[in-house]
From TrEMBL:
Keyword terms, alphabetized: Cytoplasm, Methyltransferase, Nucleotide biosynthesis, Transferase
Thymidylate synthase/dCMP hydroxymethylase domain segment(s): 1-286
Lineage, broadest ranks: Bacteria, Pseudomonadati, Pseudomonadota, Alphaproteobacteria, Sphingomonadales
A Pfam family that the UniProt record links to this protein: Thymidylat_synt
Uppermost EC category: transferase
Major subcellular site: cytoplasm
Organism: Sandaracinobacteroides saxicola
Protein name (record): Thymidylate synthase
Annotated metabolic or biological route of this protein: Pyrimidine metabolism; dTTP biosynthesis
Length: 286
């Protein structure tokens, strides 16, 4: 974060907010013993991250199930689409979410993000119309051929990018088995270090723990590769506050076993030893 803030190149980005960015950064975490990279220099709402991850794994692309659980992180994109189409009667976020929950026709018209992560992970549509469940195939592949070099899933479906509310940021995941442990790499093409990163790195770690449990392996290393790694210029307060704080010990995850990768429930995730510094509010660039 310090290097991006002090040495990043300043650029005008798609959102108009402006960022400082570095290109091609790597982080690695040893996740043995249940360790999770849940940041301590601000409070991260890990419960929202668990709910978002389970929403991806369930193959969901509609915001209603998130909103129903009090998770608001995806609401701004469909809301912006709605308000652009209705400049005469703009809705607040609360009013929009209330209609998404209460009105089925409204939800069908405005509540879908398009073929984003969940769709691609679970139901990638091939040219012949056949659907590919990349996560199910990944688990099978790890069980049948641990030494494989093709343990990959990706959200980057070129033919469908234009229909997505946002093209995938955490776009490609790959796994590797050695010495009874599962390791993973996440390639992230674009990273909002202030808001997105804490969720992305945590969810990649939770998913690694889930997959390892399903294939009967321990957990090894998680490597994160960021391409355009940026800080938004309106996050100065967040950056300076986090950099002034002393990091604390990583918390640990206890994951109750589930019948398969798609049967985990929120209650199966328990986090111990999380004693973060206070939360820091920051605006999200839409
Ligand atoms: N600019 C931008 N940054 C992102 O991180 C991001 C996007 N856009 N677009 C799509 C998703 C949505 N994501 C988001 C959106 C909002 C928060 C956010 O506001 N987080 C607050 C509150 C979290 C909560 O209430 O649970 C935080 O303090 O972490 C985080 C991730 C990640 N992605
Ligand atoms: O999981 C996510 C989703 C989004 N982001 C950030 C990265 C960028 O700041 C924006 C996306 O804008 P693009 O112009 O499409 O790159 O959202 C993230 O960090 N993590």
């Amino acid at each position: 974060m310090r290097r991006v803030w002090t040495g990043g190149s300043e650029r005008r980005d798609r959102t108009g907010v402006g960022t400082r960015a570095l290109f091609g950064e790597t982080l690695a975490f040893d996740l043995s013993g249940g360790t999770i990279p849940l940041l301590t220099t601000k409070r991260v709402y890990w419960k929202s991250a668990v709910r978002e991850l389970l929403w991806f794994v369930a193959g969901e692309t509609r915001i209603r199930p998130l909103v129903a659980q009090g998770v608001h992180i995806w609401t701004d994109w469909p809301l912006e689409r709605y308000n652009r189409a209705h400049p005469e009667a703009l809705l607040s976020r609360d009013a929009f979410e209330a209609r998404i929950l209460a009105d089925d026709a409204f939800e069908a018209a405005w509540g879908d993000l398009g073929p984003v992560y969940g769709r691609q992970w679970r139901r990638w549509q091939g040219a012949d119309g056949r659907e590919h469940d990349q996560l199910a195939a990944l688990v099978r592949g790890l069980r049948d051929n641990p030494a494989g070099r093709r343990h990959i899933f990706t959200g980057w479906n070129v033919a469908e990018l234009e229909q997505m509310a946002l093209p995938p940021c955490h776009m490609t995941y790959q796994y590797f088995v050695a010495d009874g442990r599962l390791s993973g790499i996440l390639y992230q093409r674009s990273c909002d270090l202030g808001l997105g990163f804490p969720f992305n790195i945590l969810e990649a770690a939770l998913l690694l723990h889930m997959i390892a449990q399903q294939v009967g392996l321990g957990v090894g290393r998680l490597t994160w590769m960021g391409a355009d790694v940026h800080l938004y210029l309106n996050h100065a307060h967040l950056v300076e506050t986090q950099l002034a704080r002393e990091p604390r010990a990583w918390p640990r995850l206890t994951l109750a076993p589930a019948a398969d990768l798609f049967s985990y429930r929120f209650e199966d995730f328990a986090v111990a030893g999380y004693e973060p510094h206070p939360a820091i509010a920051a605006p999200v660039a839409v």
